Give the backbone structure.
Amino acid sequence: MAIKPSGVDYAQLRAEDIVVLAIEDGRVASGRLRPSSDTPTHLELYRGFPTVGAIVHTHSTHATVWAQLARPLPCFGTTHADHFAGAVPVSRPLTEAEIAAEYERASGVSIVETFRAQNLDPLHVPAVFLPGHAPFVWGATARAAVENAVALEEVARMALLMGAPAEHLRELPEAVRRKHFERKHGAHAYYGQEKKP
């Protein structure tokens, strides 16, 4: 796993600063700097979601508002359905003991547990809100993870502009949500150009 070093400003970041770790045990394989403080969360996600190839952790404004509200983000429209097969969930809150002992690792464990408890496919719902914190977003590739992070920020912004989380708003009907997701990501996806083998 390659990850940004802890506390290094993006403007100062160079390719040789990236830290590479073994996913199995978290051992640093290469790099001279200390890895991100969120490394244990990332390791738990890679271990728990083997189909995930890249993770993006942001504190983008609108998505972070949803995380701080500790509310799932319902699917209100087709922009959301184009990227997420349903509501973006909130992971379970951590106990005081988890926070005191291994906060970052426990955050990853809680995300994986949330997806298993809700029977969610991490590539169909490639994001989660850590309550009171911020989102973690992922994808099969780095490009997909970044695209999903951008999409999450936009649908979170649109939901807030609509007045969500107000109670009077209605979710997108299930059939429309399913159709928008499946046409891009389903077994018989037809959106876009054919991929060359």
